[in-house]
Amino acid sequence: LSDNGVDIRGPWDLIVVGHGFAGLSAAVAFLESWSGTAPRVAVVDRASVDERGGSTRSTTATFRLTDAGGLPDDVAQLIRASAGAATDGYLRSFAAHVPATLAWLAANGVGLLRRDAAVALEAPGNWNSLAGGGAGFIDTYAERATGLGARFFYQVELLGLEREPGGRVTGVRVRGGEFEAVMETSAVVLASGGFEGDLEELARRIPGGELLEPAFVGARVNTGAGIAAATAVGAARSGQPDGACLLPVDPRSDLVAPVVGNWQWGILVDLDGRRFVDEAEHGFELHAGSVAKAILARGGLAFAVTDATVRAATPMLERLQRTDQPVIIADSIRELADRLGMKGAVLERTVADYNAAAVDVPYDGDRLDGKRTVGISPAKSNWAHPLTEPPFEALPVAAQIAFTFEGLRVDDTTHVVDESGQTIPGLYAAGEIVGLYDGDTYPAGTSVLRALVFGRLAGREASVETRP
Ligand SMILES: Cc1cc2nc3c(=O)[nH]c(=O)nc-3n(C[C@H](O)[C@H](O)[C@H](O)COP(=O)(O)OP(=O)(O)OC[C@H]3O[C@@H](n4cnc5c(N)ncnc54)[C@H](O)[C@@H]3O)c2cc1C
Fold first, then answer.
1. Is the pTM of this model over 0.85?
2. Atom of ligand 1 nearest to the CA of 53
């Protein structure tokens, strides 16, 4: 295997496994910080050139900043609240490197766009995305890394790591087609994502996990090989083993992430026509994952039901209906039940109970309004506006997986550590491969920034530590 005559076996100064935000950031940062002559950097990716970049390919890359371009305090608090394993040092390191990382992206031709924050009720403020999204980043940074001298090996898959007993990582075992090789190296940055592409493992860990659709490129190619390889040479893990960022989507649509969130303002019912979850315990950005998980546990398909009054009183509803498929409409709840293939009497009873349980306070779909239910189970915490006015509307909702939570444990500067907290010399990890979040709630819009910040840091650390 070779790139323009360069033998894949090396020796290399750095091998980067993975071609997303974290891996490309590491490769470019390493090369920019390199002080020796002719750096030897290899980037290996199991995907083809057309599918390179895993989850990074599918994202608009949206995140929240302070007006001064830093990490908002409440984002750090959200991560801390959902991240039992995160040390304060890791979060301090994250916050400290955000401004420099953004300046570095801009200097390398990746700018920011301001986003509409209206649907992020509990995370208001300054939402941004990378101009060109994740796919634009991949093209820009792959070109930049190539210009700085990196070699790319596509359709080459990580199999394992070579480590001296108790000592340094010295090599990477790979397979490309029929060919297997050991790549010799001074340092390795693992950036190969989580295990969202391992459906059998997901089924073992998440109730209903076998029902998840591998909808995104990342959720097909990221099978946890990097996590397994590092664990085999002694790395510790962190993050919630059954945790994952799940998205509620319209299963009929082929769009990327055809998110459906209108159930917040109406009700969500199972195939029998019964409610099974508090639809509005939080706003969408903090609650969507829990609701998608509840849908999985309920058989993998549910229906969001609203009426004409709720629709008219909730302009924001349209923005959380990102499907290209038609809304199912009926003049009565019984007719709607017929269209959805469920028993009319059950859905009528569900709606009647819900309507009767709503407290009599004003409805405001633009904020968590406290218009809750009393006396029914599950309760609904906000936006319990009775559903009485035809036309009644429904959309099917299923769950897609974006990424998993459990991964490798690292220190504050991306070195992979073992169970005793000792670093494994020569081994770094960044991005989704690092386990961080605990629980079901994913702090929205934190992964991209995390992959960029710690990918850059990993490249810089490796560059300094392997300096000739
Ligand atoms: C639809 C969608 C929308 C999202 N939106 C947002 C958002 O708006 N904001 C946000 O913060 N986060 C978002 N995320 C999450 C975010 O995109 C990811 O956390 C981020 O892209 C992860 O980057 P990464 O570099 O760690 O991994 P990835 O981008 O997944 O890259 C992993 C790379 O490793 C390669 N690879 C995998 N296995 C192997 C192997 N065995 N050998 C060699 N190579 C391998 C893959 O081909 C890929 O190139 C979204 C995710 C999805 C799926």
1. yes
2. 49
Question: Rounded to an integer, what distance in angstroms lies between the CA atom of residue 392 and that of residue 339?
Answer: 11
Q: Which atom of ligand 1 is nearest to the CA of 219?
A: 53
* Residue minimizing CA distance to atom 4 of ligand 1: 59
Q: Burial code of 329-354, b = ≥16 C-beta within 10 A, e = fewer?
A: ebeebeebbeebebebeebbebbeeb
pLDDT at 36 over 90: no
Q: Give the chain's radius of gyration (CA, Å).
A: 24
Is ligand 1 within 6 A of the CB of residue 447? yes
Task: Give the Cα separation of 113 and 426 in Å (integer).
Answer: 36
CA 209 to centroid of chain Cα atoms:
16
Strand bridging mode 423-429 / 188-190: parallel
Where are the strands (E) in 168-254, listed by range?
A: 169-176, 179-184, 188-190, 237-238, 244-249
- Are 176 and 153 a contacting pair, CB within 8 Å? yes
End-to-end CA gap in the chain: 26
Q: Is the dihedral of CA 351, 355, 356, 358 positive or negative?
A: positive
pLDDT of residue 32: 97
Non-local (6+) Cβ contacts of 125 within 8 A are: 64, 65, 66, 72, 117
pLDDT of 221 strictly over 70? yes
